[in-house]
Amino acid sequence: RLSAPLRNLVGLVVLVPAGLALMAWKAQGLNALLSVLCLVWMADIAAYFGGRRFGRRKLAPAISPGKSWEGVWSGGLGVLLLAGLWTTTIDPLWTGQGLSLFGQLAAGLGWPLAVLCLLVLAALSVVGDLFESLVKRAVGAKDSSQLLPGHGGVLDRIDALLPTLPAALALTALAASWA
User: Where are the beta strands (DSSP E) in 19-90?
Assistant: First the structure.
């Protein structure tokens, strides 16, 4: 129901910060960039499998009927396991590639606050996915484009990254200021 200019403005407000954050992550090095991408992928993969195995309570049935609260918590747990594994194995090996998102948060905030931040980022990835599903439902579309038919379209591949990339960058900036 929004006018075309307003839809374009919403698109810019969502896509531009994510694009700028992606470039900032790339500038920090391969380790940092891959860690933030893997956080989103892990949250999605763990949520999928955890939801399939344990899912009972629907998260937002009118928007995305397959998502469950158990999937959300499984995604968060997957992210925490990834963070522990990454900081103990990959960060020490890739010292010349910049510190990972996980390492930056732990170094600046300590592990208790880093865990909270990582759970917030995992939750934001779900919010991005739900927002894109809501937009598709609002216009009556199954896919956001025909470029990747059957996969929800291009936006389904990046929807969870859109809020997570800038938020993760902001949290690492906060962590650096606290260090």
Answer: 58-60, 64-68
By the 8 A CB rule, do 112 and 155 touch?
Answer: no
| Bridge partners of residue 168, in order along the sequence | none
Query: Strand (E) positions, 16-172?
Result: 58-60, 64-68
Q: What is the DSSP letter of 65?
A: E
CA-CA distance, 99 to 104, in Å (whole number)?
6
- Rg of the chain's alpha carbons, rounded to an integer? 17
Beta bridge partners of 58: 68
pTM over 0.90: no
| Rounded percentage of the chain residues whose pLDDT exceeds 90 | 69
Closest CA to 32 of 41, 19, 42, 23: 23
pLDDT tens column, 33-55: 999 999 999 999 999 999 999 98
Burial string for 87-119 (b: 16+ CB within 10 Å, else e) reads beebbeebeebbbbbbbbbbbbbeeebbbebbb
